[in-house]
Amino acid sequence: MDVVPSELNSILPDEIMDTEAIVMEDSLPVASPTSVSMETEVPEIFSLCSTATSTQMTLALTTPTTTDSVPCTMNSGTQLLLTPSVSSSQCHTPAPAPKPTTLVAGGLQKLSAPFTLSANHQLILNKVGSSSGVDAKSHGTPLLKHEGQKLVVTTISKGGQPIVLTLPHTAAKPGTVVRTGDATVQPQQFKVVAIGGRTELKPVVGVQTVSTASQLGSSSPQTASQNQQLKTVQTVKPVQTVAVGGVGTSQFKTIFPLAATPSVQQIQVPGSRFHYVRLVTATTASGTAHNSSPSINSASSQPAKPLVVNTAPMRMSVPIVPAQTVKQVVPKPLNSTAQVVPTQTQQRLIMPATPLPQIQPNLTNLPPGTVLTSAPGVGNVGYAVLPAQYVTQLQQSSFVTLASSASYSTTTGIQTQARMPLNGTLSVSESTTRPRKPCNCTKSQCLKLYCDCFANGEFCSNCNCTNCFNNLEHESERLKAIKACLDRNPEAFKPKIGKGKEGESDRRHSKGCNCKRSGCLKNYCECYEAKIMCSSICKCVGCKNFEESPERKTLMHLADAAEVRVQQQTAAKTKLSSQISDLLTRTTPALPCGGGRLPYTFVTKEVAEATCDCLMEQAEQAELSSQPQAVAERVILEEFGRCLMRIISSAGKAKMDCSINC
DNA sequence: GAGTTTGAAACT
DNA sequence: CAGTTTCAAACTC
């Protein structure tokens, strides 16, 4: 079974091939958190076990703290449930225990399901009905045959190391987890790459097994499978379901099962904010897997509510290690809000329905049914590169839907359909929370690092650029551009502002600036723009952006003063607005018909004028009658009293009338 | 808003 | 690797 041609791997940046995130160790006891030696901050034990029945198997994700665990339950054929897990090695399904022969320590089971470890170190569990799979020995890889959901796990390691494997299965063949690779090797690092495809499965974590790998590497597939035992699976970090090396950023991994046939694998480039999505066509899986392939969505950082993922191709998102960087929108935990709604002809993932600040940008440019062509020269394998931000934006969109058409007839393309917010416009919140400015590129097609969007790993969205290729419609060009940038500078997409050396400022520019005329006190300077001081690695001339610089201090003071003024103005405006609002509230009848109006609200201009007229009339009469001033004043006051009485009487009458009428 | 300045990125 | 060109953002008027 051909999973991912090596030629495709060759296209991808080398970083993808790096394996640093997860250490795999063979001798760990089952589900023993304390014994885990992986490079984890908060180790989680992830156990995979199945029930004796064919209907359900459980993927239990546990952690010593139990706070971040997200157990997964995979229903045969149709659903994978992620449910909280407390214990570290228990199957969560209430089904009877598996056959004794497959039972291993901690309730885990041997792998009896077929799988394929491809030449490029991808482990595939296939829904292959027959046992005539690839000859494992001929490929130097083991093969297990299994009639369960197809599961693809890729190490992407050039070294080709162990992999992990998980798999659900039928009653006759209890779900199993397999580990491949040579167990005799030292603890190894490997990267679990996105799993996807029709039968997309999320590679949640690294996996540790107890099996001795020699069994796997040298024995026949069947033998290997019998000897394979799943021990533990670990995530690298609490919120992370896919271990990835390099400088991570707050990101999601997402699988876009965009077409019915091709599987999708997602790859995280260490240190890159791009998400590589690899489309894989399982040539041997055949269409039989279509309706029974489960999708596994890996654990999120949040305590998990059950997450039901349907078998239909869908998009899955997995949060990865949050990083130091910053410009990115904090990914929305996937925990409980994502749902998958399968349809006959389309697979839809309805994203969290909560009000979301970010909208996927360039899907606005995608007409429904946009086809993403396969990668040139790679046969029926297509791929796409998605920036993390984009993924995040997608996830945060209330209405984003990526769908694949079941009627899609070829295996060389991906059909995507984007559904935008109903109003088709960005919300206020989204516009205000947008982390970057729109670009204005005109000549670079937004495919060079001149473009901030591209440099930040984002698709252009609501930009003012012309002839923009930084979108899904030009994915192939975009991919080439990314590769070109990475060829020039492997760290091109890594954050420029990183940690400084010990003793230095916490943050400093990774390359330093080269300013010559700005004194590093204008935003031309990347250091100044990032609000950090120049460091020893800067090559700037006439730098004034250092700690004791009087110019810098002056600027800082001015900036502070300006900020204070802005704050004061804001506060004043807020206060005034509040007062006006309060005044309006007070002068607005609390009840219709004036029933609850305050007394003074009855003294309108007309009433006041009428009252004055009455008083003036009394004054004139007193004057005409030559009354003493004291008498005149008394008459006027008496008239004023009567006026007040009339006003009060009228108010009361109005209130009564209102009460009657209402 | 048009024109200028600036420095990173790209190119040679 | 250095010099030059291209580019888009920052800035000025």
UniProtKB/TrEMBL annotation:
<keyword id="KW-0539">Nucleus</keyword>
<comment type="similarity">
    <text>Belongs to the lin-54 family.</text>
</comment>
<dbReference type="InterPro" id="IPR005172">
    <property type="entry name" value="CRC"/>
</dbReference>
<dbReference type="GO" id="GO:0006355">
    <property type="term" value="P:regulation of DNA-templated transcription"/>
</dbReference>
<feature type="domain" description="CRC">
    <location>
        <begin position="435"/>
        <end position="548"/>
    </location>
</feature>
<dbReference type="InterPro" id="IPR028307">
    <property type="entry name" value="Lin-54_fam"/>
</dbReference>
<dbReference type="InterPro" id="IPR033467">
    <property type="entry name" value="Tesmin/TSO1-like_CXC"/>
</dbReference>
<dbReference type="GO" id="GO:0005634">
    <property type="term" value="C:nucleus"/>
</dbReference>
<protein>
    <recommendedName>
        <fullName>CRC domain-containing protein</fullName>
    </recommendedName>
</protein>
<dbReference type="Pfam" id="PF03638">
    <property type="entry name" value="TCR"/>
</dbReference>
